[in-house]
Amino acid sequence: KAKDRGRNTYQFYTNDMTEKAYERITLETQLREAIVNREFEVYFQPQVNINDNKIIGMEALVRWNHPQTGLVPPGKFIPLAEDTGLIVEIDRQVMQDAMKQFQKWIDLGLDVGVLSINLSMIQLNHEDFIEFVKTTIKNAKISTDNLMFEVTETQVMKNPKQAIFMLQQLKDIGIRLAIDDFGTGHSSLSYIKRLPIDKLKIDQSFVMDALVDKDDRELTRAIISIANSLNLEVIAEGVETKEQAEFLVKNGCVEAQGYFYYKPLDVLTLTKELTKS
Ligand code: C2E
Ligand code: MG
Ligand code: MG
Ligand code: MG
Prior knowledge:
- The protein has helices spanning 2-36, 78-84, 87-107, 121-124, 129-140, 153-158, 160-172, 189-194, 204-209, 214-229, 242-250, 267-275; strands at residues 40-49, 55-66, 70-72, 114-118, 147-152, 176-182, 199-202, 233-237, 255-257.
- With 277 residues, the chain is α/β, with parallel strands linked by helices.
- A hairpin with a 3-residue loop joins β2 (55-66) and β3 (70-72).
- α3 (87-107) packs parallel to α5.
- The protein starts with a helix and ends with a helix.
- The chain binds ligand C2E and magnesium ion (3 copies).
- Residues 180-181, 201, 237 line the site of one magnesium ion (MG).
């Protein structure tokens, strides 16, 4: 009897595992097809100066236009894409499309500021990455003055020495760098000082609760003062209310990104938004 029960439990367990594994394999197969068919679409979220609401830049955010299920957010496929290495090709398509589109806006005479592109560290470890970046910039005819790359603090801290080495090569070709989701990655101040970076992006979890939670408020203030004392730019992510924006300005952070200003928008909608006046 115990044996039967054991077997049933075991079988239940394997069925469950099989289903998960099956889901993963399906998703992986679909991601491979999505890469071949270029099903990814770049959305852009404007970033603003809180004092005058002027756009200072835009972050490129990938969406997957799935033929059956429609628009899939990055949280649903980036983790698997990173596990399987498929993120490398996805990020390259995003980089090509984002730079081309951004240069189109610049050519239209629009004030779009600096384009921010998210990079996976896996991407950075590819040996031909720098060559790819140079070629993509050349093809898009965009100036590095208009470019910034973002890497998350967590990914940088997984291998800080390698990160410094790779980020320095990007700096050397004139690209500015930001540390994304700052405050969540447990980096030490001594490392931040050694990173060849230009900007800290305060993680949205702190910003969103800054007015209701004392710890988040203090952390937000602390990150702003770290940025100021290390001579780094600082931007707050996830700004959803006027009160949050006012709190930020009062504490020395003038750049913001969040639903209070703009949601991530598709190219057509954003172009209309930028050209209306
Ligand atoms: P992230 O780089 O930290 O991007 C900010 C995320 O916060 C975006 O989510 C954006 O839509 C969301 N957001 C912005 N303002 C607000 C707000 O006021 N309220 C709320 N609730 N959310 C806000 P999204 O587009 O779902 O992207 C999630 C993450 O996926 C990104 O976080 C980034 O780490 C990753 N990601 C997105 N695009 C790419 C890409 O092309 N390549 C790579 N490697 N990662 C990407
Ligand atoms: Mg980002
Ligand atoms: Mg972030
Ligand atoms: Mg994030």
